């Protein structure tokens, strides 16, 4: 009886596993067809002599120019130029409560450092400095007597 049980078990095993073994046949399953635009199982190999290139960017809308890498962006809003250094000669005079440099009979400049010019009142001087954006106030960097 043991032999009959073993034979029946073997027969049941074969009957159950045979359809499963036949279903795994790779020749009977069709492979899905991929469109040519999609990379499938292809292998892409790079050699050390090849340099990777960046992917091309989409084109901008036609109303916008294409920026070039060597082009600089448009200039930012105009900023006033830095004050130009200059040297003026004239006389230090008091105009109300402030000292000014009188260059000619109808031209005078306000001076930014009143304490620096206090000792030169009524004297002929040479002042090196720069004018403010309005061109009215002289920022003193150096002052000396003219002999």
Structure in a nutshell:
The protein is of the alpha+beta class and 147 residues long. It is 18% helix and 27% strand.
Written description of the protein model:
The chain is of the alpha+beta class and 147 residues long. The chain has a domain at 85-145: OB fold (Dihydrolipoamide Acetyltransferase, E2P), CATH 2.40.50.430. The protein contains two helices and five strands. The protein has helices spanning 2-23, 114-117, and strands spanning 85-95, 98-104, 107-111, 124-131, 137-145. It has a five-stranded mixed barrel. β4 (124-131) and β5 form a beta hairpin. It starts with a helix and ends with a strand.
Count helical runs: 2
CATH architecture of the domain at 85-145: Beta Barrel
- Cα(first) to Cα(last) distance is 141 Å
CATH topology of the domain at 85-145: OB fold (Dihydrolipoamide Acetyltransferase, E2P)
What is the share of helical residues? Answer: 10-25%
Percentage of residues in DSSP E strands: 25-35%
Low-confidence region ranges: none
Trace the largest sheet across and list its strands: 1-2-3-5-4
Q: Roughly how many Å is the radius of gyration?
A: 47 Å
Regarding CATH, which class of the domain at 85-145? Mainly Beta
Sketch the topology as an H/E string, one letter per element: HEEEHEE
Give average pLDDT, whole number: 77
Going by helix content, strand content and strand pairing, the class is alpha+beta
Largest sheet: 5 strands, mixed, barrel
Shape: rod-shaped
Beta-strand segment tally: 5
């Amino acid at each position: 009886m043991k032999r009959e049980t073993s034979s029946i078990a073997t027969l049941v095993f074969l009957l159950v596993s045979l359809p499963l073994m036949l279903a795994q046949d790779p020749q009977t399953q069709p492979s899905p067809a991929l469109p040519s635009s999609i990379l499938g199982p292809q292998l892409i190999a790079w050699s050390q002599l090849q340099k990777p290139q960046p992917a091309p960017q989409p084109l901008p809308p036609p109303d916008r120019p294409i920026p070039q890498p060597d082009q600089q962006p448009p200039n930012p809003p105009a900023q006033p130029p830095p004050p130009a250094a200059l040297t003026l000669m004239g006389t230090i005079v008091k105009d109300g409560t402030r000292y000014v440099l009188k260059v000619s009979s109808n031209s005078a400049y306000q001076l930014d450092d009143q304490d620096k010019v206090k000792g030169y009142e009524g004297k002929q001087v040479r002042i090196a400095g720069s004018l403010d954006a309005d061109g009215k106030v002289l920022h003193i960097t150096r002052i000396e007597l003219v002999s």
